Fold Claudin.
Amino acid sequence: MASASLQFFAFILALFGVFGDIAATLLPHWKVNADVGSNIITAITQMQGLWMDCTWYSTGMFSCTLKYSILSLPVYIQAARTTMVLSCILSAFGICITTVGMKCTKLGGDTDSKNNACFAGGICFILAGIFGLVPTCWYTREIISNFLDQTIPESSKHEPGGAVYTGFISAGFLLIAGVIFCSSCFKRQQGAWIYPPKQHHFSSTEQESNAGYSLKDYV
């Protein structure tokens, strides 16, 4: 029962991780630049994401521009696009697989099949967490290095946005969920290896007596 509740807790963490992963991939808040001019009417907030760049004006206007060209983008943005999409796909696969393998569901067949499904889903979550953690770290490093560069003007410097923090938290949720699923299945298999099923051993005298009894019956 404790293992089933732990798997359910890991499944909830994985759900939050999947939703956060998708939100971080789509939101344009990867890096934010607040440029306040001398007049409050001209104050703008520029946001850059993986797929679009948005500008919010203090007057209430909001405009976005899609990034159509892929080859013109920096390498870290291209890598972030690829790894975040892979993270979303793997986490979605993990949700489907662990739904079949969880103890609280009636899917997946026998116990061994459900354990294998849970282990496979946990591996998907771990890979999704790694794929989500790499681009956020790389993106944050680029933002910090540009911010500390003295040759870059103040108006061109950015800070990490909400999507970066969402990606960090989502990757952590997915990693924790994957470790819980894999460890729960590993403990169950390890217990089966340490305590194998008992086998009844018959002594030679018992076997001979049984053999003799059967021969007498046939005579």
Helices lie at 2-26, 75-101, 111-148, 162-194, 204-218. The radius of gyration is 28 Å.
